[in-house]
Amino acid sequence: MAFAASELGRKLLALQASGSASNRVIAEHLLRNPVRGSALSIEDLAAATGVSTATLSRFARLLGFSGFPDLRAALADTLQAVLRPVEKLRGSFNREDGRSPLREGLEDTLANLRGTAEAIEPEGLSRIVARLTSARCVYVMGFGLSAHLAGLLTLGLQPFCRQLVNVVEFGGTENAAGRLMALGPEDVLIAISFPRYATDVVHLTRYAADRKAAIVALTDSAASPLAPLADEVLIARCTHPVLSSSNVAALLVIEALVTALMVSNADNVAKAAQLTDAISSYLVSQTSRGR
Predict the structure, then answer these.
(1) Please, which residues bridge with residue 219 across strands?
(2) Burial per residue of 241-274, b for 16 or more beta-carbon CB atoms within 10 angstroms, e otherwise
(3) Which CA distances in Å does 82 have to 52, 71, 127?
């Protein structure tokens, strides 16, 4: 279930696996019934799990909350984020205004593109380009759908950076963390995340910030969990009536950043020519098409 993969869900899984007997019972109940758990009072949950209210309060504090009300609120917030795409889809079948979800999605996508393009600051792109140009190594990181965005950005930047690493290319979180082991103050991490935000990208970005690497975040707003960790933030609007988020504007920002890097130095013409020479034998030419 998606809830179990959330940050709170994983904490509950850890307690279910290695906690005390009463903590295992509570954790299992909340993992099986997160929606119900977010609505029950402490007395009702105590009755449902067969533990005391004092035990529930200690359980909440063990998870890092000040008390049971904060735990219940965190359950509700987590569920809201996890279930938002489901609610969007359900709502698209129950519309009373007669608007087509497909048409609305197209309109939102166009609005995302316009709003994102208008908000791009050339000065901000120039600062990021300067960081990328001088970096010992540029790391690009995205999980889930953002992994595909990271792959596209990696392909665009690769010919023009001293060294480039796609952090989440294969192997999951453990291997991604391993690829960041050598990261330091001379490096840049470009972290990508959109709703629903991946906890792994936040944790590893914080790790990179602690190691004094420069952080560039590509995300949807200043309220993103990546924003406070970043030295530079690139905003791509992602509103969509059905999908959890739209990736189209993120592609616009990626292309803008790659373009800004390419035109920042005349030496990049030679690099582009070298790339063309390297791949020319794999390209379909007009001559070969005529055969």
Answers:
(1) 235
(2) bbbbbbbbbbbbbbebbbebbbebeeeeeeeeee
(3) 29, 16, 35
Sheet holding 164-166, edge to edge: 164-166, 138-142, 188-192, 214-219, 232-235
Which CATH number do you get for residue 85? Answer: 1.10.10.10
Q: Taking the CB of residue 14, how many other CB atoms lie within 10 A of it? A: 12
How do residues 37-57 score in pLDDT, each as one tens digit? Answer: 887 889 999 999 999 999 999
Radius of gyration, CA atoms only, the chain = 23
Tell which residue, 278, 73, 251, has the closest CA to residue 152.
251
Q: Within 10 A of 211 (CB to CB), how many other CB atoms are there?
A: 15
252-266 per-position pLDDT tens digit: 999 999 999 988 887
Is the confidence at residue 170, as pLDDT, over 90? no
Q: How many CB atoms lie within 10 A of CB 210?
A: 9
3-state secondary structure of 123: helix
* 97 within a domain of the structure (yes/no): no
Coil, strand, or helix at residue 172? helix
- pTM score: 0.65
pLDDT, one tens digit per residue, over 7-18 is 888 889 889 888
- The CATH number of the domain holding residue 112 is 3.40.50.10490
Residue 1 pLDDT exceeds 50:
no
The reported pLDDT for the residue numbered 83 is 57
Task: Note whether 45 and 168 are same-domain residues.
Answer: no
